[in-house]
Amino acid sequence: MSDLTTLKQQLIDEVESRKDELIELCGSLIKIPSENPPGDSTEISKFIEGYLGKYGLKTEWHESADKMFNLISSIGIEEGKHLIYCGHTDVVPAGDRSKWDFDPFSGEVVDGWLLGRGASDMKAGLGGIIFAFALLKRLNIDLPGKLTLAIVPDEETGGEFGVPWLLEKGLVKGDGCLIAEPSSPLNPTIGQKGSYWFELEVFGTPGHGSLSPVAGGNAIVDAIEAIEKIRSLWDMKITIPEEVKGLIEVSQRYMREVEEDREKFQPVLERITVNVGTIQGGTKSNVIPESCKVQVDCRLPFGVTQDEVTAYLKKELDGLGIRYEIRQFGFRSNANHTSAEDPVCRSIVDNITFVTGENAYGVMQWASSDARHFREYDIPVLQYGPAYLPSIHGYNEKVQVEDIVRCAKVYAAAVIDFLYENK
């Protein structure tokens, strides 16, 4: 057994022996409401700073918007490689409390499950990287490079004041990044589809409802025709680039063989998905509506760009002879990925196998995340974190304790492989 393998095993054993402490940390994070909106991360940021401070770790605060705080802490040396561990403190609102079977901010453990809003997305993962980061300091592990903990307050509403803000300001840099976002136990996500959110506004001519359709121009009726054209994006012919075909194929196999309930979702990796999320139009039933707004969420596979989607939509909608405007908002990106052979991917994947004894490999995610921002700055990145995927953003969110412990072991061991490789 090599010295590095011995060191990794020591860290894994330390996580195991201190797992109660790890779960207590994750539960404490859940107990602090950090819903976004409104996005006030003051209380949870103070808690994290206090936890790190107990072990002599200093935390930088960077306020990107009112009461939205980005935290940065680092250990190691400037020479050598630089690894980033990233997580977000915000969670989606708990919603109707009466529909929960337990207090959404209880942070309790019941029958091997940690309960509460953010348990899976992503306070268990956040707790894991904080714990692993502090553990390396507590054990006085000499690192031949630098490990930075970057904790952001704004991911659930698009992330404008989190990761992209830090990258634009040059406050975080690195040779690789791990985001502790939810994933499957053996399958981190190394690629994401692109995002294309837009609002279509269709304009009509108002008039008395008793004269429709002879008089006026009904914006809602025209919007219905427009929606059918928008939905045809699903049938748009797309050629998947050769360099990502392998990733698509392994991801579809994962959907068939691992998450078997997702077998029917295989086509979404190669097509543009279209969700008509909201429709708003008209004033009352006896007035011909002069405006109708439709908000749509499209996710883009490899092989098509945002500009190409815009051109397709304009061509189809212009053919209807309607008056309209298209405005993009929210998530915007083209499909992106990190090679499975990149050192940061190998470090995480190899150590999932080292910890579990099972074959691990990276897959494609059909949604999108903060990972796209790191890739825009040429920082290789992947996502791996504990989760009970069906509970994310829903009522009764939870995560298994054993998943939290496994991921924390991987986080600690992967630092060694990444920073020591080609040091």
UniProtKB/TrEMBL annotation:
Peptidase M20 dimerisation domain location: 190-320
This protein's record includes keyword Metal-binding: yes
BP GO terms, sorted: lysine biosynthetic process via diaminopimelate
Gene Ontology MF: a single term: succinyl-diaminopimelate desuccinylase activity
Keyword annotations from UniProtKB, A to Z: Cobalt, Hydrolase, Metal-binding, Zinc
Reactions catalysed according to its record: N-succinyl-(2S,6S)-2,6-diaminopimelate + H2O = (2S,6S)-2,6-diaminopimelate + succinate
This enzyme's EC code(s): 3.5.1.18
InterPro entries: ArgE/DapE, ArgE/DapE_CS, Bact_exopeptidase_dim_dom, Peptidase_M20, Peptidase_M20_dimer, Peptidase_M20A
Pathway where this protein functions: Amino-acid biosynthesis; L-lysine biosynthesis via DAP pathway; LL-2,6-diaminopimelate from (S)-tetrahydrodipicolinate (succinylase route): step 3/3
Annotated SUPFAM superfamilies: Bacterial exopeptidase dimerisation domain, Zn-dependent exopeptidases
Protein's UniProt keywords contain Zinc: yes
Any Pfam family the entry gives: Peptidase_M20
Cofactor: Zn(2+); Co(2+)
Enzyme class: hydrolase
NCBIfam families: DapE-ArgE
Family label: Belongs to the peptidase M20A family.
Record protein name field: Probable succinyl-diaminopimelate desuccinylase
